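Q: Convert this sequence to structure tokens.
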Amino acid sequence: MFAGKPHQVSKASPGNIQSCDLHEGDWGTVGSIVFWNYVHDGEAKVAKERIEAVEPEKNLITFRVIEGDLMKEYKSFVITIQVTPKHGGSGSIVHWHLEYEKISDEVAHPETL
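A:
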């Protein structure tokens, strides 16, 4: 969903994601720019992200935040999402990897994300 139809994420998780719009390129394509409206810790936030990697065979996508609320506290912020089907059962396991550099030591780690 995050790679091919991120605009559908708001339907799956309306309390967290309000919308996702394509600003440049094509859905699920490296180099494309997507714009998210989301809620974090009860506050409305935005993030403009560039798709850095898409690996369908690994169910993996990587986004780099290039504008938005996160850039007020972080020099860089990269989000990698990878989904692994459960062995011998239904469903999948989703791993979110956040790679970031804080602008100062006073900035908290993004643990609530």
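The CA atoms of residues 73 and 104 lie 8 Å apart.
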